[in-house]
Amino acid sequence: MDTEAFYRWFMELGGQYGVNPFVFGAIYIGAIPFFSLSLAWLIKNLQQKKSAVLPAILSGFFFISAYIYLIIAGKNVPLWVYIVLVLLIASGAWSVVRKVNKQTSQKGE
């Protein structure tokens, strides 16, 4: 793919979603190292049989961070982005409820 064709394709993404393609691209590319680090943390925690909730939530967040920008600023957001966001929120809420229940049951002993 030549440079001009890539640039045209990249700029058309902004029109398709109604957002600034440079902001979308910066978030998309900028999230890659954070996604990689949180994924490595998730794998490490799973191997050590530690809680994987926070690294899993962070991995999911960084994976869809550019699409969160689309939801806030754009249009025509893919359905799968909404589904993943709902799952991340539900997972976080479930984790909080579990921790609160655990803390309150330990204080009652």
Low-confidence stretches: none
Tell me, briefly, the overall form: elongated
Question: Major beta sheet, specifics?
Answer: none
Order of helices and strands: HHHH
Q: Indicate the percent of residues in helices.
A: over 70%
Distance between the termini: 66 Å
| Helix/strand/pairing category | mainly alpha
Number of domains: 1
Tell me what portion of residues adopts beta-strand conformation.
Answer: under 5%
In oligomeric terms, what are we looking at? Answer: single chain
Total of DSSP H or I helical runs spanning 4+ residues: 4
Any idea what the radius of gyration is? 18 Å
Average the pLDDT over all residues and give the rounded result: 84
Number of strands: 0
Short description:
The chain has helices at 3-17, 21-47, 53-73, 79-107.
What does it look like?
The structure is a single chain. This protein has 4 helices and no strands. The termini are far apart. It has helices at residues 3-17, 21-47, 53-73, 79-107. 11% of the residues are buried. The longest helix has 29 residues, at 79-107. Helix 2 packs antiparallel against helix 3 and helix 3 (53-73) crosses helix 4 (79-107). By secondary structure, the protein is mostly helical. The protein has one domain.
Characteristic terms for this protein:
mainly alpha; single chain; 0% strand; 109 residues; elongated
List the helices and strands and how they pair.
Blueprint: H1 3-17, H2 21-47, H3 53-73, H4 79-107
Helix pairs in contact: 2-3, 3-4
